[in-house]
Amino acid sequence: MSDDTLPREAMEFDVLVVGAGPSGLAAAIKLKQLNPEISVCVVEKGGEVGAHILSGAVLEPRALKELFPDVDPGLIPLATPVTADKFLFLLEKSAVSLMTPPQMNNHGNYIVSLGNVVRWLGQQAEELGVEIYPGFAAAELLIEQGRVVGVATGDMGVGRDGEPTDNYARGMELRATYTVFSEGCRGSLAKQLMETFNLRDGIDPQTYGIGIKELWEVKPEKFQKGLTVHSVGWPLKADTYGGGALYHFGENLMSYIFVVGLDYPNPYLSPFQEMQRYKTHPAIAPYFEGAKRISYGARALSEGGFQSLPAMVFPGGVLVGDSAGLLNVPKIKGSHTAMKSGMLAAEAIAEALAGDRPDELNGYKERFNASWVAEELHKVRNIRPGFAKWGLYGGLVNASLETYLFRGKAPWTLHNHDDHTSLKKASASQPIEYPKPDGKLTFDRLSSVFISNTNHEENQPVHLQLKDPGKAIAVNWNEYRSPETRYCPAGVYEIIGAEDGNPHLQINAQNCLHCKTCDIKDPTQNINWATPEGGGGPNYPGGM
Q1: What tens digit of pLDDT does each residue of 188-225 get?
Q2: CB–CB of 474/499 below 8 Å?
Q3: DSSP class of 103
Q4: Dihedral angle sign, alpha carbons of residues 122, 490, 55, 283
Q5: What are the angstrom distances between the C-alpha of 170 and each of 82, 173, 533?
Q6: How far is residue 335's CA from residue 55's CA, in Å, rounded to a whole number?
Q7: Pairing of strands 84-90, 227-233
Q8: Across 82-146, where does the E strand assignment appear?
Q9: What are the φ/ψ torsions at residue 313 (nearest 5 degrees)?
């Protein structure tokens, strides 16, 4: 194993931010705006700022304008004002145009590459004096006397056998008076914090979706700059939440996103295959005619909303952004709420640093509860769980009532559930036959992973850990026919030897896109996603 006896170097700051996403960078920038003397460090596991950022890519600029009142969001590279919204209900061979729900009206919003947004935010942060360290994965919480005092980065150069190699380097301790955790959805350290400090006690479980994305270059005659197209319905069954989206932005670029709620019941369902099949619909395929696919990625999304928000304050730190689950599902947006949460946390931290430095940053809790973020999430709290409770058609009726009749003020709150409990046994489910990819419009997973620029040092411990290896066959294969081989969008999990009556699980960890779906959907919660070496994983280009 790595040599834990070697001392770790340590650096100390007033504030440490874990994760260079919208919320973390907004927090760092706001802190420096409030007090330039505060020392702020941001640590990011991606090889560069933005490398691991994947987004639905429509930005509501409210928080950005609050952070930079004098900046035109259109100056961010590739930012394109939305010019038209379409909302479709897809049947198998036809489509019905529906009125765009008010939450999805994008007038005044921008289609962006969120990777470019955070690259731009990173530049602003560094100009203000924030220290940013990409390529270093925060792997361990530092807790002393019941208080978080920072994190340690992972050791580098540990071999697959757990022993140090010739390139071994001990991780570093990054210590701070306060630590902001902005790891995004299902962050590995945020998950530990919730368990250690009981941050989820008394609230609904979080529920999730998987968002899979392709970036396409389309023919100029097919390009409609600023167009957004959203749809529900086919190819998903009525018992499965999800839908597709197409965004035209930049110069002849089209972002295609397909989302599947991870509370789906059929273990034979493959979100990746559903995404590929969607493109063949008569109303969707014309958008792809003559187009070229140039990138691919995937990421889990927190969909629980208001009733699944954990306690976001604990001794020594806070949770912000999608680490806390601030996605507005009906809007299909979370960057604006994430940024605002980071700004609110910064205000509370700056206030605490100027005062008596209490162990708990209750000022953040108070600011959040009084903010437009809490109000916005509370108004739409019943829409996503309505689909889980009543399926597609009942969910659409409920969403209409919540939006137009109750206007977010219904005298009840629907509840969420753990996604891993929703799978039916294979014996009670219908296998799904998916068409073979044609290599032009539809593709396989391995060729898709190739264009995600995913790379891991192969001689390192497998970061996808089975708590009980025996369950891979005794439970997952025998009872569910190994759903991990289908819900993973990167082909990480593979059953070998089934034809010979001796099935065993092979984990191709080098393919991992860091989407966290396996950590969420495994039926016995037997898979734990741990942090690999810093700098590993996907490397998404500016258009993602």
Answers
A1: 999 999 999 999 999 999 999 999 999 999 999 999 99
A2: no
A3: G
A4: positive
A5: 48, 10, 12
A6: 9
A7: parallel
A8: 84-90, 95-97, 110-111, 131-134, 138-144
A9: -125, 140
- The whole-number average pLDDT for the span 111-123 is 95
Query: Residue 55 has what pLDDT?
Result: 76
- Cα of first residue to Cα of last residue in the chain, in angstroms, is 37
Report how far residue 516's alpha carbon sits from residue 114's, in angstroms, rounded to the nearest whole number. Answer: 19
Predicted structure pTM score: 0.96
How far is CA 345 from each of CA 63, 206, 363, rounded to the nearest angstrom?
Answer: 13, 22, 8
Cβ atoms of 207 and 308 within 8 Å: the answer is yes
Q: Average pLDDT in the 444-458 region?
A: 94
**Phi/psi at 444 (nearest 5 deg)?**
-95, 170
pLDDT at 543 over 80: no
Mean pLDDT across the chain: 95
The single residue listed with the structure tokens 């034809």 is: 499
Query: Does the pLDDT of residue 358 top 80, yes or no?
Result: no
Task: Report pLDDT for 534.
Answer: 84
β-pair partners for 10: 173
pLDDT computed for residue 3 by the predictor: 58
DSSP state letters, 31-60: HHHH-TTS-EEEEESSSSTTTT-----EE-
Which residues 6+ apart lie within 8 Å of 450 measured at CB?
Answer: none
Helical (H) or strand (E) element with 177: strand 173-181
Contact, 381 vs 305, CB < 8 A?
A: yes
**Which residues 6+ apart lie within 8 Å of 458 measured at CB?**
160, 510
Distance of CA 277 to CAs 88, 271, 353, 395, Å? Answer: 16, 10, 53, 23
Continuous segment of H or E residues that includes residue 152: strand 147-153
- With cut-offs at 50, 70 and 90, classify the pLDDT of residue 56: low
CA atoms within 13 A on the CB side of 217: 4
Task: With beta carbons less than 8 A apart as the criterion, state whether 528 and 520 touch.
Answer: no
As to burial, measured by CB atoms within 10 angstroms (0-12 exposed, 13-18 middle, 19+ buried), residue 404 is exposed
Which residue is it, tokens 């952070």? 67
Q: Which residues pair with 110 in a beta bridge?
A: 59, 81
Tell me the average pLDDT across 235-260: 97
Look at residue 72 and tell me whether its pLDDT is greater than 70: yes
In the numeric block, the tokens 């081989």 are attached to 485
DSSP-assigned letter for residue 204: P
